[in-house]
Amino acid sequence: MLSATRPDVALHGVDLSPDMIAVAERDLAGSGVSLHVADVARLPFADDSVDVAVSSLALHHWPDPVAAMAELARVTRPDGVLALYDFRFTDMEPAMAALRAHPAVAADSVRRRPARRGPRLDARLHPSGAARSTDAAAR
C-alpha cells in the first residue's frame, strides 16, 4: 500500500455514506489512511491542501457536478491534478464545462480520455494559483 512505501504522503478517503466509510475503516485498519464522511460539494480540507484528487465511480451520483468541480478545484493546490473516473454512460460534459470555466483550472488541460473501465476526466490547476478567487462566497 502507498502509505507503507511513502510515509510522507497523507492519504484521505471521502464518502457521503457512513456505511461505506465503515467498510473502508475495516478494510484499511492500520493503514494510516484518514477517512471522512463528507459531501464532495463540501470537503473537509483547506484551500490548496490536496496535491492529487481522485474520484472513482462517483460522478454519476453527484446531484450538482458544477458545485463538486468548484469544491475539488478549491482544495487542490496550484499545479495539482484532478482525475475522475466513471462508467461509460456517465455524462461528463457538465463537469468538464465547469472545470474549463473555473478560474483556477487550466482550461486547455481538461480532457476526457478512455480508461480501462470507463471515461476519465483529467485537469491541472494553474501553477501560480493567481487566478483563484479569494471570496469564499464566489465558490
From TrEMBL:
Superkingdom: Bacteria
Keyword field contains ATP-binding: no
Record bears the keyword Transferase: yes
Residue ranges, annotated region (Disordered): 107-139
Pfam families, per the entry: Methyltransf_11
GO MF: S-adenosylmethionine-dependent methyltransferase activity
Protein keywords: Methyltransferase, Transferase
InterPro entries: Methyltransf_11 (IPR013216), SAM-dependent_MTases_sf (IPR029063)
One biological process term in Gene Ontology: methylation
Domain Methyltransferase type residues, every copy: 11-83
Identification of the protein by name: Methyltransferase domain-containing protein
Lineage: Bacteria, Bacillati, Actinomycetota, Actinomycetes, Pseudonocardiales
